[in-house]
Amino acid sequence: MSDHRLFGNLFLSIGAMKAGTTWLYTVLSRHPELHFSLEKEVHYFYHRYVNSGQLSETNRLKNAKQRYLFRFEPERAKIDRVRQNLHWVSSYLSRPVDDHWYSNLFDLRGPQTYACDFSNLTAHVPSEAWPHIQGECDKLRVLYTMRDPIKRLWSHTKFHLQITDQLEKLDSWTPEDFRAFAKKDFLWDNAEYGAVLRRVNDGLPRETWKALFYEDLHADQRGTLKSIEDFLGISNFNYPQALLEKRTTESVKVSMPEFFPELFAEDVSRIKSELTDLGFEPPSSWL
């Protein structure tokens, strides 16, 4: 009988959307001690503790069809890779969606130290969920990344309008339209850094989680990556420079309106104060 807990060693990245999480995923997936499932953002803990419709059968079927089942060319594909992908999709489509379901998503893991899940929605689970998550782990490590709230909000706004074919609104919206849209929960909740950190801090021992700023990450990429590896207790890896310079999921290049920062000035002042109260000093470059 195994002495290991259900999730084994689990590394969760819960950083805010448009705050460098995809870049971190792309880079860290090269590390030989980290195992990632086929789906970057499983959102299981959000499904379990916040919105039980997140991983409905319909949503999982849509993901399987759009992302996995028809995305290989028989003439070019490697049969073992396709077989592994289909095995993973079978686990992803199984039921019930519970802790065993989640654990099975990582059953192709080899000798790697951690199973890894980069899901920004996990940041929104309540504080009382964290002890249960930790209780199913041999070792749990949680990473939270933050970015200048205004720049993150502008990037998120552009990105959402881009993927929903509504870019024309960037030219037609009034300041009131921008503010109303940005205040929608699915955008704005990503900016409430203090609330996220309070929930994590209330639910987990301090040594199990780490917070960092997007600006520091890109000011010293290798140094920050080393700090993450040290936090995880894994070896330092020499990532290819070309990989560090790669940019992913960039929003369309449209300049921020001059009025945009002022729309949220009071909110940003509050968020910065909350971070300071928690012992974090926001970068001086924040608007």
Structure, described:
This protein is of the alpha/beta class and 287 residues long. Helix content is 47%, strand content 10%. It has a single domain (8-55, 97-277), classed as P-loop containing nucleotide triphosphate hydrolases (Rossmann fold), CATH 3.40.50.300. Strands 2-3-1-4-5 form a five-stranded parallel sheet, with helices on both faces. The model has no long low-confidence stretch (mean pLDDT 93).
Spell out the blueprint of helices and strands.
Elements: E1 8-13, H1 21-28, E2 34-36, H2 44-49, H3 57-69, H4 79-92, H5 99-104, E3 114-118, H6 129-135, E4 137-146, H7 149-163, H8 169-172, H9 175-182, H10 185-188, H11 193-203, E5 209-213, H12 214-219, H13 221-232, H14 241-244, H15 260-263, H16 265-277
Parallel strand pairs: 1-3, 1-4, 2-3, 4-5
What shape does the CA trace take? globular
Within the largest sheet, what's the order of strands? 2-3-1-4-5
CATH overall fold name? Rossmann fold
Residue share in helix: 40-55%
CATH superfamily: P-loop containing nucleotide triphosphate hydrolases
- Overall pLDDT metric: 93
N-to-C SSE series?
Answer: EHEHHHHEHEHHHHHEHHHHH
User: In the CATH hierarchy, what is the class?
Assistant: Alpha Beta
Tell me the count of domains.
1
Q: How many beta strands in the DSSP annotation? A: 5
Strand content: 5-15%
At a glance:
This protein has 287 residues and is an alpha/beta fold. The chain is 47% helix and 10% strand.
Question: Keywords for this structure?
Answer:
287 residues, alpha/beta, globular, 5-stranded parallel β-sheet, 5 strands, Rossmann fold
